[in-house]
Amino acid sequence: MESMTLGGGDGEQGDEAEPGFDFDAHEAVAVGAYRKVRGLYEDYAATVQALLTSALVTAGVKPHSVEHRAKTEASFGLKAARPDEADPETPKYSDPLVQIQDLAGCRVITYFLEDVQAVQAVIESEFSVIERVNRSSYLRAGGRPGYESYHYIVDLGETRQTLSEYARYEGRVVEIQVRTILQHAWAEIEHDIQYRSVDALPKEIGQRFMELAGMIAISDREFQAISDAHQAVREAADESFKEGHLADVELTPETLKRYIDDAFGADGRMRDWSYSWTTRLLKRLGFSNLEQLADCIKDYDDDRVSRLVWGSRQGQLTRLELVVMTSMGQENWIAAHPWAGGENGEAFRDGVEARFARLKAAGIEAGHFSPSAAGASTSGDGEK
Asked: What value does the CA radius of gyration of the chain take, rounded to a whole number of Å?
């Protein structure tokens, strides 16, 4: 690229200062060159996103999102015209199209810190890593507030680049960023305030950013600790379930599904939110562990109760609800059920009364089970 420096003419010298570097012209030339290849970088970023997403699935990593983009012309122009820190009269990038390495970019946002490490492992195994930077260390070294974010400069590697579908990307790189969702929120806000400010970031605001970065780091660690604790609870519940210690298994959507799949048979029609809703209902009714639920339903045939009440075999969770209702009895069920009060309470109570009438006519004796009677079965005589 020809020099953009505009020197003086052949006339007299002395009073007129020599014109400085023409940053506007430098930017215009760079943007013009980038415009011709931006589509290629858009395709490159999408290709890396697809490869990365597939590799994460194979590795069992579930991120919040995997994004891709090619740098906009406006953003590229601003970066191309950035002055050199050591010599502000010259551009930082003399050949922007070659020297700027984030023309194509991907970003992986995770929920937890441990997922960041898992994503890094995938990147380092799937791509040829040219550079790896922890952005927080880089920024803090310059006295600026920083957030945890790992930035990789990669290419597809020698093997992939020999394949015809990837050949056009040879010699080009992609930036991949990895951060948690909390770090991403901090980065987006920090970027909007700091980089869109004409002047340097005020000291007071910079200090507050530093403090907030520390709080986010603590929050990330706490979320990870919660995730670890949740996993420990799940493993303990799994062990108690296997050993038949149902009193030690807390009632959750996951444990409810596992228990009912065993007791009533799996039902692929059920959605996750259905188990969440039923778990909330059962807790409202007073249940807290699986032993209480097992004691409640053990004396009743869910299929028969369903056919008597509705005339057909209903779904897994509807059958569970009907059996719990039958075991608790009309009085307990209505007293504890959240729908028994309010605007439609009368219609709900009438419906419950009609169901118990059908059961009684078929010779099924309703129970009087109470979850609060810990350890003891208080169901009725069951079916007769």
From this structure: 33
Its domain, for residue 256, covers 245-383
pLDDT score recorded for residue 92: 94
Is pLDDT larger for residue 19 or for residue 118? 118
Contacts of 313 (CB under 8 A, 6+ apart): 303, 306, 307, 319
Element of type H or E holding 130: strand 128-134
Find the largest Cα–Cα distance for the chain: 118
pLDDT at 82: 93
Q: 3: which DSSP letter?
A: -
Q: What is the arithmetic mean of pLDDT over 333-346?
A: 89
CA distances from 31 to 20, 28, 34, 106, 342 (A): 21, 5, 5, 21, 65
Provide the number of structural domains found in the chain: 2
pLDDT tens digits, residue range 78-109? Answer: 999 999 989 989 999 999 999 999 999 999 99
Q: Which of 319, 318, 314 is nearest to 300 (CA)?
A: 319
Question: Distance between CA atoms of 35 and 168, rounded to whole angstroms?
Answer: 17
Sign of the alpha-carbon dihedral angle for 206, 208, 211, 216: negative
Same domain, 175 and 133: yes
pTM greater than 0.70: no
Any residues with CB less than 8 A from the CB of 347 and at least 6 apart, and which? none
Residue showing tokens 């690229």: 1
> Do the beta carbons of residue 313 and residue 319 sit within 8 Å?
yes
Q: Note the helical H segments in the chain.
A: 23-59, 73-80, 96-99, 113-126, 135-141, 157-161, 181-194, 203-243, 253-264, 272-285, 290-297, 302-310, 316-336, 345-361
Q: Which H helix or E strand runs over 109? A: strand 104-110
Tens-place pLDDT, residues 258-304: 999 989 988 888 888 999 999 999 999 999 999 999 999 999 999 99
Residue 163 and residue 42 share a domain: yes
pLDDT at 11: 45
Same-domain check for residues 183 and 255: no
